[in-house]
Design goal:
Order of helices and strands of chain B: HEEHEHEEHEEHEEHHEHE
Radius of gyration of chain A: 15 Å
Bound molecules: iron/sulfur cluster
CATH architecture of the largest domain in chain B: 2-Layer Sandwich
Number of domains of chain A: 1
Shape of chain B: globular
Number of strands of chain B: 11
Largest sheet of chain A: none
CATH topology of the largest domain in chain B: Alpha-Beta Plaits
Oligomer: heterodimer
Largest interface: A-B, 22 and 28 residues
Number of helices of chain A: 7
Strand content of chain B: 15-25%
Distance between the termini of chain B: 51 Å
Number of helices of chain B: 8
Number of strands of chain A: 0
Chain lengths: 136, 248
Amino acid sequence: MTSILYRIMALVLVAGLSAIAYGHDHADAVKGMGLEGTAKADALKACVRPTDWMRRNHMELIEHQRDLTVRQGIRVQKDSLANCVDCHARQDDKGQPVPVTAAGEFCQHCHGYAAVKPSCFQCHSTVPSPAATAQR
Amino acid sequence: MSNSKGQTDMDRRAFIAKTAGAAAATLVAPGVFLHAVAADQEQAVTDRVRWGMLVDTGKCADGCTACVDACTTENGLPNHGRPATDPTWIRKVRVRDNFTGKETNLPLMCQHCEHPPCVDVCPTGASFKRADGIVMVDRHICIGCRYCMMACPYKARSFIHEDIEIKPTNAPRGKGCVESCNLCVHRLDNGQAMTACAEACANAGHNAIVFGDLKDPGSPVSQALQQLPSRQIRADLQLNTGVRYSGV
Ligand code: SF4
């Protein structure tokens, strides 16, 4: 059930992304997705997997890792939700991290467009941990 | 292969294991060990380890709340000023012997039972015991029914009644799920074999909480259990708790 839902969400997401990519507000959209700016991800060429794969499947990756982490204590930093947030959270003018769920931010930009409300952020932090922020 | 040869091999293995263990348990700061078994973030935990504690109630000081405070900070426990519903992972309990009048302090938290009643009653499989003995709630699955809270003999579990403003990266939580002490599982998984409460107690100079691997005879907790008489709280329930107490 959940995976069907995710698949539908992924399709909507891809449709949404293509619409954005070819829309007249291309520059704004790219900016909103954090492709230029102060997020760690902005300085990188690709995510933890190829970009087109990530667009469709990032939720599978996170869900898979979630069970491994909680049940078996496997904490691969690379594929963790904490790493998503750490890498994609932008900093504001004062150097404070902006929640990835704020309007126009990396996660919210697509989730909002596709009207997806993932339950991750009901419990999980939307900004990098203070320790991760301090390391920058 | 002869028996004697097999025996020699066993001894050699034990020797190698001990040497490797000694080399891998590095002292980072007083009371803070980087432990070989917990160090690999990418390996699944195994039942070669069982985490546990010994609380020496004789050393637990009147009025000291170092362990409780450390737990609150480490795990970002929200405080709305409503003690009846605010989550509590560890609390100080004062017990009195009615005959002698002797009063004893002890910190009480999830006892990390080998046979946890919360796991027995959980209808969803959210309450579970990890291979290394930590009893936890998988809050991705918990439906918030609170059967586990009713079943726990130690009143160790809390329900999150209110919306959560600050969600710590190490201890995610949201309204509607149950949670309890997880022996600072994020520390263990990242190679630090020391809970926040035991560390704080040691830093406050009391050393009432000794933490470690119950299956490793050389661990601080196993050594302490060798020296002190200890008991389980509600031993009659035969839960084989991972947390033991001495002096009660
Ligand atoms: S509250 Fe959650 S963990 Fe407890 S019994 Fe119900 S489903 Fe299981």
